């Protein structure tokens, strides 16, 4: 999908994301995952800032999103949540950071939108410090054959309207990436994955 069209789709969804943030959708998962963040944090595809409420108060967040409308909502969320944050409007597939820049990298519900998700995880592995952590909450293809088939059928409509690849095989993506998974939890017929991982720096 054309990147500018995709950005406009997410600009148009910013109010919906704000409503979901205020309702604290996915609270039980976000609280469990984001509470593990520490130090200098990179949050990619920050959206309307749904994670800010759950960050420990001593973190320093760099928040990236390609949607200006989303970033406006995220700035409000950071202010209300008392989180130190700076904001960058950029496509995460185009931006570059120095190696070993962050103690923690956070992504929640963003991998459905990337053109090359494995390459994004390769970037995470470079940008995260040795001994740092990569925290992911992502949705994808169900292990239930019936649900998975339904996801594949409705994917074209979902992609056109929302900009989301509904049937991404997240386990395969994780396995083809350089990240090292320490712990993973799966929910909702294995459509939702919570992942605690670290970068693979090639030690040993």
Q: Would you give an account of this structure?
A:
This protein is of the alpha/beta class. The chain contains seven helices and seven strands, in the order H-H-H-E-E-H-E-E-H-E-H-H-E-E. The longest helix has 18 residues.
The percent range for helix content is 25-40%
Low-confidence runs (pLDDT<50, min 5 residues)? none
CATH level-two architecture: 3-Layer(aba) Sandwich
Say which CATH homologous superfamily is assigned: Vaccinia Virus protein VP39
- Rough shape? globular
User: Span from first to last CA?
Assistant: 40 Å
Number of helices: 7
Rg, nearest Å: 16 Å
Mean pLDDT: 94
The biggest beta sheet, please? 7 strands, mixed
Provide the number of structural domains.
1
Q: From the 3D structure, determine the CATH topology.
A: Rossmann fold
Percentage of residues in strands: 25-35%
Lateral strand order in the biggest sheet: 3-2-1-4-5-7-6
| Beta-strand segment tally | 7
- Secondary-structure element pattern, one letter each: HHHEEHEEHEHHEE
Write the layout of secondary structure elements.
Elements: H1 3-12, H2 14-23, H3 27-34, E1 40-44, E2 60-65, H4 68-81, E3 84-89, E4 102-108, H5 117-127, E5 128-139, H6 145-162, H7 170-176, E6 180-187, E7 192-198
Parallel strand pairs: 1-2, 1-4, 2-3, 4-5
Antiparallel strand pairs: 5-7, 6-7
């Amino acid at each position: 999908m054309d990147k500018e069209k995709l950005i406009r789709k997410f600009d148009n969804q910013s109010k919906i994301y704000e409503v979901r943030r205020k309702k604290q959708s996915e609270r039980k998962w976000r609280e469990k995952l984001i509470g593990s963040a520490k130090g200098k944090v990179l949050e990619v595809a920050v959206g309307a800032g749904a994670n800010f409420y759950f960050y420990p108060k001593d973190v320093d967040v760099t928040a990236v999103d390609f949607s200006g409308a989303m970033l406006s909502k995220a700035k409000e969320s950071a202010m209300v949540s008392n989180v130190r944050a700076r904001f960058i409007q950029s496509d995460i597939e185009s931006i570059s950071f120095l190696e070993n820049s962050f103690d923690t990298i956070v992504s929640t519900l963003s991998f459905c939108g990337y053109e090359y998700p494995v390459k994004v995880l390769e970037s995470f592995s470079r940008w995260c410090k040795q001994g740092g952590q990569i925290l992911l909450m992502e949705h994808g293809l169900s292990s239930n054959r019936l649900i998975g088939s339904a996801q594949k059928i409705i994917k074209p409509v979902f992609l056109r309207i929302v900009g989301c690849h509904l049937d991404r095989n997240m386990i395969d993506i994780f396995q083809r990436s350089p990240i090292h998974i320490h712990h993973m939890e799966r929910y909702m017929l294995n459509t939702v994955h919570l992942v605690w991982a670290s970068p693979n720096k090639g030690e040993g």
